[in-house]
Amino acid sequence: MNGDDTSEADCGGQNSKSTANSNRERSDGLTVQPMSDGGSPNDDESADDEPTLAFRTDDGGDRAADGTDARSGDDAESATAESAAEVDAGDTPTDTESPLEGRPPSASPDVDLSAPKYYLNRELSELAFQRRVLHEAIDEKNPLLERVKFLAIFTTNVDEFIRKRVGGLKQQIAAGITEETPDGRTPGEQWREVLDESHELLERQAACYRDEIKPALAEEGIDIVDYEELSAAERREVRDYFESSVLPTLTPLTFDPAHPFPFISNQSLSLAVLTREHPEDDLTFSRVKIPRNQVRFIQLGDDEGNGDDRYVLLETVVRENLDLLFPDVEIVDTALFRVTRNAEVRRDEEVAEDLIEMVEEVLEERRFATVVRLEIEREPPAQILEILTRELDLDDREVFELDGPLDYRDFFELADLDRPELRLPDWTPQPHPRLGSREDGRSIFDVVRDRDVLVHHPYHAFEDTVQRFLEEAANDPDVLAIKAAIYRTASDSQIIETLIEAARNGKQVAVMVELKARFDEENNLEWAKRLEEEGIHVAYGTIGYKTHTKTSLVVREEDDGVRLYSHIGTGNYHSETAKQYEDLGLLTADRDIGQDLVRVFNYFTGHSMHREYRKLLVAPGNMRERFVDLVREEAERARNGEDARIVVKVNRLEDPQLVRELYNASMAGVDIDLIVRDVCRLRPGLEDVSETITVHSIVGRFLEHSRIFYFRAGGEERYFTGSADWMARNLDNRVEAVTPIEEPRLQSRLDEILETLLEDTRNRWVMQPDGSYERRRKRVDEPSTDVHATFMEAAWERTTRH
User: Fold this and answer.
1) Which positions make up the binding site for Mg(2+)?
2) Is residue 453 part of a domain?
3) Strand 371-377 to strand 399-402: parallel, antiparallel, or no bridges (unpaired)?
4) What is the CB neighbour count within 10 angstroms for residue 669?
5) pTM, full prediction
6) What are the residue boundaries of the Polyphosphate kinase middle domain, all occurrences included (predicted)?
7) What residues does 336 pair with on adjacent strands?
8) Residue 420 lies in a domain
9) Which of 643, 651, 672, 675 has the most crowded Cβ, counting Cβ within 10 A?
10) Known binding positions
11) Residue 234: inside a domain, yes or no?
C-alpha cells in the first residue's frame, strides 16, 4: 500500500483481511466473569434506533444522544441511541412475522426452524441490553464519574423502553390481541415478564447508587447528603435558598371534591402531600411538581479548601420546607413519585389529509397518554399509594417502589463536575488522513473523485468530513444541485444552515425530512418549516414508510460532464451524536451508486419505488432479497465443501426470516460471527442448529451504531455498510440504503474494524445459548484490547504522522 492507503486502512490492527481469513473464537478461548448480583446480563438513533447515550465531548460538556443538554427532559430521549436508542411506525410490539417469499427447507428435515424454542423474545432481549448498560455503572474498573453517567444513561434508556414497548403491549392487551410472537408469547405474557424484569433492574440500579456509587463519591469529596446530615447553619442556608429561588416556581395542585385529580406530566418528579387543618379533618391530597428547570444538586456552603463538596437534592429541599408552601396546615405525610406515559400513539397515514397536522396531533396526544408506570419511594404512605394507583388506573405490577432517587437523568449534572481524574480522558475527533483539515486547501471533490473515502466517527471529525462535504458543495460554483435525507439532526444544526446557504447561492436543493422520527418530531417540524420558508423543496417522507436512510447527493458540473458525488452513512447528520456514536460513511463519485441515489431521492418526491438498483441495496426494494441470497450462497458453498464465512455487525437482529437463514447456514457449516449491540432473537450454540454461530455485543465508551456486512463469497469477499439493521421494520417498512464497499483498501479497513471488535477483551459480551450474556475477559497469555481506545490511538497517530 502507498502512504495514503496505509493511513486510511490502518486502525491499529494488521493490514490484512484477518476477519476474512480467520475462524471465529471457539468456546475454549472464552474466559468469562458472570455478574453475581443481578447486574449481569440489554444510544435510533435512533431513540427508536438506538438507546439514548451521553458521553463526554471535546467541549467539556455531556450531551444527550440527540445533542440536547442532558437535562432537557423529554428532548433527551430522542435518540436514540438508536437508545435509543429506538419504536417507530412499522415497529409495534406486535412483532409479527416478516413476509416470506417461500421459506427454504432446513438443512436437517427433522428441525422445524419456526419453532418458538429457537427464538428469543424481542422485549426481554432489549432488557438484557439494558442490563449490560447498567453493568457499566456497576463496573468498578470504570472511572467513578463515568459510572455516574451510566446511571443516567440507563434511566433514559429504560424510560424510553417503558414508554414505547410496554406502552404498546398494554395497548394490545386492551384491544384483546392474543397473537403470539415468534418465541411463543402473547402480549399479556410479555407484559408480565417485562415488568418483572424491569423491577429487578431498577432495584439493582438503586442498590448500585445507594451501596456503591454514593459512598464512593463521598470518599472522593463529593458528598450527597440527606437532610438529617445538615448542620443548623446548612439548614438555614437551604431554607433561604428555597424561599428565594424555588418557592416562587412551585404550584401545588389539590385533589378534593372541588378540584379534579391534577394532570401529571410524563417523567416529571413530583411530591405527593397529605395535609389537614385540624386533627379531625379528612386528609387532603396535593401534588407538587419538582421543577425541571432548577439545578437538581444544590451545593452547600462555600468551598473551605478541604476538597470536599456537599450537595443536597432539590426534592429533599422542597420536602423539608413544605411548611412555607402549605402554611397554617398540618403536613401529615409525603411521598416522592414519578409517572411514565405511553408513547405508542398511532395515526392512519393513509387517511391523513395533512401529514404535518397529523404529527402535531400525535405530539399533543402523547402528552396526555395513558400512564404505564408509577415509580414511588420505598414504603410510601398507604393512602398516597392508594390514591395514585386508583386515579392513574394502575396494576400492582406497574408500581415500582424504589429505595433511592427516582430519576437519574439529572445525574449527567454530577458527571459533568470538574474532576477530570474521575473521568475518562476527553476525546477530540481527528481530521481524516486523506481529507485533511479545511485549512489544507484541497477540494474534497478532488479527493473523492480520485478514489472513495471511508469515514469512521467519532474517530474522524464529522465537521471536517461529512459537514465539509455539504459546505463545500453549498459554496462551489460548479455544483448544480444538492439532495439530502434528514432523519435526526441537532437542534442548532449546521447541516440545515448549510442547505439554506446552498439555496441562497442558487443551487437546486431538495431535502427529505422525516417527520415521524420518534421524539424528534417537533424538532424536524421546525426545520422543515424553516427550509420551506427559504424556498427549498421539502418532502415529508412516504405514506406507510419511515425514511431512515442517511444519504446525500451532490450534482456537480465538471470538464468531462456532470458528475455525481454521494455520501451513504450509518449515522445521522448530527454533529453532536457524531462525537458519541460509532458510525461509518462512504464518500464516493461512483456513477452507479450516484444513479441509484437519484432513484431513491426521486422516490421521496415522486413516490415510485424501483426494485432494481445497479449497486445499492435499498429497502423496501431489493434489500431483503439480496441479503437472503447472500446468506444462502454462503450456505451452498459450505455444503459443497468450500470455506464459507459470514460476519455481520448490526444494532439489532430481529427479523425471523434472516434468523432462519442464519440457522440454515450454520447447519450447512458456515462460520458465523454476529456483532449485535442490542436486541437479538437468534440463539447461538444450539446443538445441530447454530453450533457455528457466535453472538457478540460491544458496550463501552462509544455507542456502537455502524452496520457492516461481510460474506466470503468463494474468495470474492463482499463488504457492505449502510443504515439498515436486520429487523422486519427496516427491511419492509422503512426506506434504507446499504452500499457495497468495493475498493480493496477500504475492504481492508472494514475487515480490521471487525477483527478489532472480535478481539476486544474490555467491552465485549458473548451470548450464551439461553440468551444470557457473559463478559469476555482476557486470558493471561493474550494482550488487552479495548476497541475504542485502539481506534482513538490509531486516529491520533495517523493525524500526527500526516
Assistant:
1) 488, 518
2) yes
3) parallel
4) 18
5) 0.86
6) 234-414
7) 271
8) no
9) 651
10) 157, 488, 518, 581, 677, 705
11) yes
